[in-house]
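Methods — Computational structure assignment.
A single polypeptide chain was analysed. Its primary sequence is given first, followed by the predicted tertiary structure written as C-alpha coordinates.
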Amino acid sequence: MSGGRYEWWLASLGRTIVWARLHVHESGVADVFDSDGNTLVYDSEDTARAMLMDAEFVAFDGLDEDDALARGFSLAEIAPPQGLTEDSLRPRMVQQLGSRA
Protein backbone atom coordinates (compact mmCIF):
# COMPACT_ATOMS: atom_id res chain seq x y z
CA MET A 1 0.00 0.00 0.00
CA SER A 2 1.28 3.44 -0.83
CA GLY A 3 1.59 6.50 1.42
CA GLY A 4 -1.27 8.37 2.96
CA ARG A 5 -3.93 7.32 5.43
CA TYR A 6 -6.43 4.46 5.28
CA GLU A 7 -9.82 4.18 6.97
CA TRP A 8 -12.37 1.39 6.92
CA TRP A 9 -16.06 2.16 6.46
CA LEU A 10 -19.02 -0.21 6.57
CA ALA A 11 -22.66 -0.48 5.71
CA SER A 12 -24.98 -3.15 7.03
CA LEU A 13 -28.05 -4.85 5.67
CA GLY A 14 -29.41 -7.36 8.14
CA ARG A 15 -26.53 -9.70 8.99
CA THR A 16 -24.46 -8.66 5.97
CA ILE A 17 -21.59 -6.19 6.36
CA VAL A 18 -20.30 -4.39 3.26
CA TRP A 19 -16.85 -2.84 3.63
CA ALA A 20 -15.22 0.09 1.83
CA ARG A 21 -11.65 1.33 2.28
CA LEU A 22 -10.99 5.06 2.12
CA HIS A 23 -7.44 6.01 1.15
CA VAL A 24 -6.47 9.65 1.58
CA HIS A 25 -3.29 10.31 -0.37
CA GLU A 26 -0.65 12.78 0.78
CA SER A 27 -1.72 15.01 -2.13
CA GLY A 28 -5.23 15.30 -0.66
CA VAL A 29 -6.85 13.20 -3.39
CA ALA A 30 -8.89 10.32 -1.97
CA ASP A 31 -10.05 7.01 -3.35
CA VAL A 32 -12.49 4.40 -2.16
CA PHE A 33 -11.95 0.69 -2.79
CA ASP A 34 -15.44 -0.80 -2.82
CA SER A 35 -16.99 -4.23 -2.40
CA ASP A 36 -17.16 -4.72 -6.18
CA GLY A 37 -13.38 -4.36 -6.42
CA ASN A 38 -13.57 -0.88 -7.96
CA THR A 39 -11.37 2.02 -6.91
CA LEU A 40 -13.31 5.28 -7.16
CA VAL A 41 -11.19 8.46 -7.16
CA TYR A 42 -12.37 11.74 -5.60
CA ASP A 43 -10.88 15.23 -5.59
CA SER A 44 -10.74 15.38 -1.79
CA GLU A 45 -11.29 13.47 1.44
CA ASP A 46 -14.46 15.48 2.09
CA THR A 47 -15.96 14.45 -1.25
CA ALA A 48 -15.11 10.79 -0.66
CA ARG A 49 -16.57 10.87 2.87
CA ALA A 50 -19.76 12.54 1.58
CA MET A 51 -20.13 9.80 -1.04
CA LEU A 52 -19.72 7.11 1.61
CA MET A 53 -22.23 8.75 3.95
CA ASP A 54 -24.72 9.22 1.09
CA ALA A 55 -24.46 5.45 0.53
CA GLU A 56 -25.20 4.93 4.27
CA PHE A 57 -21.67 3.87 5.20
CA VAL A 58 -20.23 4.76 8.61
CA ALA A 59 -16.61 4.95 9.71
CA PHE A 60 -15.61 1.73 11.50
CA ASP A 61 -13.37 3.65 13.92
CA GLY A 62 -16.34 5.84 14.89
CA LEU A 63 -18.61 2.95 15.91
CA ASP A 64 -19.21 2.03 19.52
CA GLU A 65 -20.99 -1.11 20.71
CA ASP A 66 -24.37 0.64 20.99
CA ASP A 67 -24.08 1.89 17.38
CA ALA A 68 -23.17 -1.62 16.22
CA LEU A 69 -26.05 -3.25 18.11
CA ALA A 70 -28.47 -0.73 16.60
CA ARG A 71 -27.24 -1.91 13.18
CA GLY A 72 -27.81 -5.56 14.10
CA PHE A 73 -24.35 -6.82 15.03
CA SER A 74 -21.74 -6.65 17.77
CA LEU A 75 -18.28 -5.15 17.31
CA ALA A 76 -16.91 -8.48 18.58
CA GLU A 77 -18.30 -10.14 15.42
CA ILE A 78 -16.52 -7.99 12.86
CA ALA A 79 -13.10 -6.74 11.82
CA PRO A 80 -11.99 -4.96 8.65
CA PRO A 81 -10.83 -7.30 5.89
CA GLN A 82 -7.16 -8.22 5.75
CA GLY A 83 -5.13 -8.74 2.60
CA LEU A 84 -1.86 -7.67 1.03
CA THR A 85 -3.40 -6.68 -2.30
CA GLU A 86 -6.75 -5.41 -3.53
CA ASP A 87 -7.21 -8.73 -5.33
CA SER A 88 -6.90 -10.57 -2.02
CA LEU A 89 -9.21 -8.06 -0.28
CA ARG A 90 -12.00 -8.19 -2.84
CA PRO A 91 -13.62 -11.50 -1.74
CA ARG A 92 -13.52 -10.31 1.89
CA MET A 93 -15.31 -6.99 1.29
CA VAL A 94 -18.75 -8.49 1.97
CA GLN A 95 -19.04 -10.34 5.25
CA GLN A 96 -21.99 -12.60 6.10
CA LEU A 97 -22.46 -12.85 9.84
CA GLY A 98 -23.86 -15.96 11.49
CA SER A 99 -27.49 -15.98 12.53
CA ARG A 100 -28.39 -14.90 16.02
CA ALA A 101 -29.61 -17.53 18.46
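Note: The two ends are 39 Å apart (CA to CA).
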